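Second attempt. The first submission of ATPase/DNA-binding CsgD family transcriptional regulator had a stray character pasted in from the spreadsheet, which I only caught after the job came back as garbage. Lesson logged: always re-copy from the clean sequence file. Corrected sequence (879 aa) follows.
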Amino acid sequence: MTAGRVLTLTGPGGCGKTRLAIRVCRLAAEAWPEGAFWVDLEEETDGSHVARRMAAALDVLLPAEPDPVPALVSALRDREFLVVVDNCEHVLDDAARVIAAVLSKCPRVAVLATSRSRLGIAGERVWPVPPMDLADALELFLERVRAGAPDAASGAEARPGARRICDRLDRLPLALELAAGWAGVLSLAQIADSLSAPFALLDGGARTAPFRQRTLQGSMSWSHDLLDDDERVLFRRIGVFEPGFTADAVTRLAALGGPGPERLLKGLRGLIDKSLVVADTTGAVAGYRMLGVVRAYALARLEEAQEDAAARDLHLDIHLSLLERLAPLLGTDKDAWRTRLGAAYPNVHAAIEWGLSRADPARGRRLATACAWLWHLEGRGVEGVRLLRRAAARGADERSPLQAEVLAALALVLNTAEPGVEAFEVARAAQDMAAETGAPAAGRPARPLVAIGRLTVGLTEALEEARTVREEAVQAGDGSIADCAEAFIGLIHVLADDYRQAIECLEHAVEGLLGRGDRGVGSFALGWLALAAARSGALQRAGELAQRAVATAEPLRDLHWTGSARVVLAEIRILQGRLDEAAAALAPIDRLVDGSGRLPFITGWERCKAMLALEHDRPREAVEWCWREGRWQEEPTEGWLAPETQLVLAVALRRSGDHSAAARVLNALSDAPVTTQMPRIRAGVLDELALLIHATDTERALNLHHEALRIRIDHDLVLGRVASLESLALLNLRRGVAKTAGVLAGAAERARSDLGIAPRPLLRAAVADEELRARLQEPALHGAVEHGRAMDLPAAVGYATRARGPRRRPESGWESLTPAERSVVELAAEGLSNPEIATRLFVSRGTVKTHLAHIYAKLQVANRTELARAAAVHLNRHN
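This time the job returned cleanly.
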């Protein structure tokens, strides 16, 4: 404290102002020449006696005059000390007059005052006493518990229960001391549970305490009695606000009658000055809040005034109006929308709960629907699903645009909160109801999900649906939905391994999505773009895109979005062979998941963990991770896993020695309709089937590997071509064709280096096989390896194709056709054009043309007409 100055400690009753002032007084006693003096105004009821109270504490004699202040000032003029004036609020004006007079004439005197309101004098510094920090609050509470009920403070549940009590009571010292008094009657957990109505429990303070501090009710009543009429009206009405409301919301309370907006703002200032409302003016818009125990008292007064329902209805209208004003930002700046809604969310949530409880729940249902994107984006999905299911149930008997909007919102939140078919079923119901009621806009947010749901039917069907959604959104001027649909179209092209089209769509979608601040779908689109780049061989760019996806998602502070982006980054690091970096990318997810009782939905997380386990030669662990992807289903089977995960599962099963289970998974995967439209998966299945029979049927294995290579050539699967070289090298080593094995192994090493993939030991899979390990020592092999290292990837693929050797498939006739050629024949016989066949099979038009040329030559037909006739004859012959 500085001489000639006054510092006022302010705060609500029971916050510890007096306790803090006592500590300061003790410390100052030795720092000041004359020490420190304590003036307690607690029991003073006549403001004119303030000067005499101070004189008595300072041992100063005053004459019997009507105004003793001049005499007091004269007596203190040359003295040097600190005076602490405690509990000024109920005699505020007189206390302020005396303190101002002393400071104006006594330059070596300093004053520390405590009050629920500022003094309002020149030179005053105000320090609002904050709630205690958790450590101090726990220490105080447990100390008081030990004093009255030692056993209650020593049990295993003591500290968790004490923490709950401290948090529920805003760490206010008075409230904590009163709560500690119940420790001999209730357990700490029971005390915490009882504090939903703190004023009913927290009475019975020490008999030696001032009356106003013997109960929390008494302390709050003391503050309430100091308010003027407008302040009392405002005090009880703002009780409906959760922590975090604005001045604009306060002025809206004028609709309840009584004080107008200007008087309400003046009343707000008065409540802040009297420490019943805490102001935060650091942001662009000032925010206000009440401590929990203060708000509980205000709500009791609101109910007492029979204004509770009307105030909560108005509170609902205020926040419904806020969401309607913010709605345009959803299409232009989702970041800004999230920030604005996030600040108001505690109030919005309370308004939804109230609205859904009303006889007419329409306003509550509308408000819940307006929050869908926040729940979808920010990890509040469980809460959002609960509220939206309740909103849907309240409208279950109606078929209306509002119910369509509720269902569309529910589908959106389900998609990230609870993966499975329900989200797609609800989305379809929303779309159908919107169409039925003539309100297509009501169901539009669900339309991309309907397209995603079509993936279970096939890529072609999903692509057609997504294109329809995009065109409808463009026509409606809904750029946000159009960009979402464009991103999904890009994903379908990624799944179909049409990377050129995928990159074109996704780059366009990313630009639009991020331009609107849509971090969620934008981060997904960046991740898909990264995978497209990686699988087409641009691994460095893929890594940069994946890092950008993580940076885009992180501000959402949601495990689903950030985790999904990190999974893509980890997968690309695995493809690059940078396993430590892959593990580092997943580490933040792993730590959060380890500390969570409920495992969240993170796209591809389990599969990526399985891939990493395989790279570390832990196949059984990889099997377990793959199966965990199906944990959302009651009885998961391979069919519930994504095709990519099924392929990883088959690899893990083969490498763990369970070849029969691996074959079962691979055969089921190859028979799945969607797999025919996923070249990368088809090629991977063929490779794995070949690896299963390496030791028993090398010729069939050779054909399967070459069929996989052909698919990878046709679809420009660059990384897959490297895998083909390695598989063929291993098989040729087993066949005893050392030169071919060495050339292909060397070429694979060169390709890895060129693509930025970490080197892998020569024919690593052979190390566990004694016979193959011996062949690795053949001199001819090592010379061939050097020859292979001189080849680039196209040259190596050409060498592998030429080195195939004799084939069992005949050169002509129906048996000579490859599976891909048979698919082209079937579609051509149905009358589809080359572009239509290309779309159906997810290949380029040039590839279709090449296939047809091979087919004409093998079947000795000249054109499509002859091909259709030959196909019909062949079909009749085999039926």
